[in-house]
């Protein structure tokens, strides 16, 4: 999913990389990936969110959502939800820490205002019986994009729709895109 392309040379997506993990102690297996994002994008702002800083953001900026946040049974639900809130508020690129940057990200930030890549086909058939599934492991957006607002507004209702691991994940993204 993406917006209409632009020929502007100015970035439409802010040069901010967001990543998250439970604590600041990133496992050794993922440190190379995190460092690659900073190495290929040295002039970008880098924000690393922990469980603690994520909850502080929700409490400060979305206090009405805090009850839902605190009642998520799995930490992955919080990590999934956080992505939408930080991209809505600040814009930029969210990438899971298992993603490795192989080149600078600047070119894609000029062309589109929001990007949610497709997940692999087998996941879409298995999860939603849909011909596609939007991925939330890496996504990009300008601040205040209406699609992100739509997803934020629908997160609470999603708890009744999906298996626990999908209440804030790829099924939420795809379902909100379809409706």
From TrEMBL:
A GO biological-process term: mannosyl-inositol phosphorylceramide biosynthetic process
GO cellular-component term (any): membrane
Source species, domain of life: Eukaryota
InterPro entries: Glycosyltransferase_domain, GlycoTrfase_DXD_sugar-bd_CS, Nucleotide-diphossugar_trans
Tagged with keyword Nucleus: no
Stored Gene3D superfamilies: 3.90.550.20
Alphabetic keyword roster: Transferase
Single GO MF descriptor: mannosyltransferase activity
Spans through the membrane: none
The protein, known as: Uncharacterized protein
Organism: Dreissena polymorpha
């Amino acid at each position: 999913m993406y917006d209409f392309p632009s020929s502007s040379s100015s970035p439409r997506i802010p040069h901010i990389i967001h990543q998250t993990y439970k604590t600041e102690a990133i496992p050794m297996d993922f440190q190379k990936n995190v460092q690659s994002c900073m190495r290929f994008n040295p002039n970008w702002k880098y924000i690393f969110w922990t469980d603690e800083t994520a909850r502080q953001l929700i409490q400060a900026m979305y206090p009405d959502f805090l009850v839902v946040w605190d009642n998520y049974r799995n930490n992955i639900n919080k990590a999934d939800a956080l992505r939408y809130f930080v991209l809505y508020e600040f814009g930029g690129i969210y990438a899971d820490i298992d993603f490795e940057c192989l080149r600078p990200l600047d070119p894609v930030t000029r062309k589109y205002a929001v990007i949610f890549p497709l997940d692999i086909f087998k996941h879409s058939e298995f999860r939603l019986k849909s011909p596609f599934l939007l991925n939330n492991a890496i996504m990009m957006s300008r601040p205040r994009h209406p699609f992100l607002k739509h997803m934020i507004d629908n997160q609470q209702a999603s708890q009744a729709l999906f298996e626990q691991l999908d209440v804030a994940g790829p099924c939420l993204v795809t379902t909100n895109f379809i409706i």
